[in-house]
Amino acid sequence: MDVGLEDTNAPHSMGTTIIGVTYNGGVVLGADSRTSTGVYVANRASDKITQLTDNVYVCRSGSAADSQIVSDYVRYFLHQHTIQLGQPATVKVAANLVRLLAYNNKNMLQTGMIVGGWDKYEGGKIYGVPLGGTILEQPFAIGGSGSSYLYGFFDQEWKEGMTKDEAEKLVVKAVSLAIARDGASGGVVRTVIINSEGVTRNFYPGDTLPLWHEELEPQNSLLDILSSSSSDPMVT
Amino acid sequence: MIFVELLCRYPYVTGTSVIGIKYKDGILMAADMGGSYGSTLRYKSVERMKPIGKHSLLGASGEISDFQELLRYLDELILYDNMWDDGNSLGPKEVHSYLTRVMYNRRNKFNPLWNSLVLGGVKKGQKYLGTVVSMIGVHFEDNHVATGFGNHLARPILRDEWHENLSFEDGVKLLEKCMLVLLYRDRSAINKLQIAKITEEGTTISPPYSLKTFWGFSAFKNPTLGAEGSW
Hints:
- Chain B: Non-catalytic component of the proteasome.
- Chain B: One of its GO terms (biological process) is proteolysis involved in protein catabolic process.
- Chain B: InterPro entries: Ntn_hydrolases_N, Proteasome_alpha, Proteasome_beta4, Proteasome_bsu_CS, Proteasome_sua/b, Proteasome_suB-type.
- By secondary structure, chain A is α+β, with helices and mostly antiparallel strands.
- Helices cover 29% and strands 28% of the residues of chain A.
- Chain A has helices at 64-85, 91-104, 151-157, 164-181, 222-228; strands at residues 18-23, 26-31, 35-37, 40-43, 49-51, 56-62, 111-119, 123-129, 136-138, 140-143, 189-195, 198-204.
- In chain A, strand 1 and strand 2 (26-31) form a beta hairpin.
- In chain A, helix 1 (64-85) packs across helix 2 (91-104).
- By secondary structure, chain B is of the alpha+beta class.
- Helices cover 33% and strands 29% of the residues of chain B.
- In chain B, strand 6 and strand 7 form a beta hairpin.
- The radius of gyration of chain B is 19 Å and the shape is globular.
- The N and C termini of chain B lie far apart (48 Å).
- The chains are: A alpha+beta, B alpha+beta.
- At the A-B interface, loops of A face helix 1, strand 5 and helix 2 of B.
């Protein structure tokens, strides 16, 4: 890993956009679906929102391998913890297990995660676990390289006590905006909503997302444009 | 190979300056609530000062995850101290000594906790204010201490204006004067801070608040007057 002695003011960017938002009754987790190796898109439909227990999910960013192995270990520990405890694990416990692995292996791991879920004691909760293994409980969290483009957006748009639909719309809009500007984010927008009633997975392919600045309505072919327009669009 | 752990170690989420001063009834400490991620001001509600046991208050700058780990070590220390149930409790001097040992021993193993710490407290009327300067483990006590940028910007002000037996109001005003300078001149500072007080009675940490800034200098309105093209 030839990254020692780097300028300490420059953390690594991590391909992905991940978001976790609390609302009045639960949480909404969202992510893009692009996994890249260098400039090649290895998987254009990956699922970055991974289940840890029935009621707790984690959004993964950074190294795919590192984030997968951390969630595998945490899922294993949580499973045993649930058996011992005799009831579902709390979001706090799940987040702290993630923190434990992230902190104690900080030299080797390159993954930032957002843990979100619902339990009967605290309701919907979101915990951010960035690089280094800090744990921070937040009303909403953003992560991954695409999140750089969303700080201003959330500063403006975030509101306490949103409804489930408002929260999901916000998450989808945000991931979609990040995809528009971040080369390392792309594909579809996936969301997972967790509340007292259970878990709902949603899937938003590119054509269902709004168009942003300088983006055009997708067409099947130029030929359709030519045939449908009255004047000659082929102009120099 | 032995240097690998140090070489690969750099901080990710960091807090900036902490300032501490002795005053009439105990110690006053100030820190903003920022957690920077490189140059991004990423987290704006990080509590960087925490009470430790009955008699101490710890403020930290540097890597937040290491500060959180330190709080766990201290939690265990205080727990075991309480379990003796012998009427005695660890004072700020003892906690400061413990922290120094932890920091220095980690440094010797090339696996430092990337923090600068300010530890203040009062026990049996004796005020104590110490700092563990960095991940190296250097430590000393003084009437006023600071970490990071605070050393360069706040300490000169404190050297001039601190005096024995400051009242609470004067102490807060002095700290706010220092925090304002840091806000103007430290890139990683944010305008959301807390001031903590520890006395014989106990610890109180203020709710977060912001300071008013001043930009009304006439020179600010027209800085290049007489020197067009300059900055």
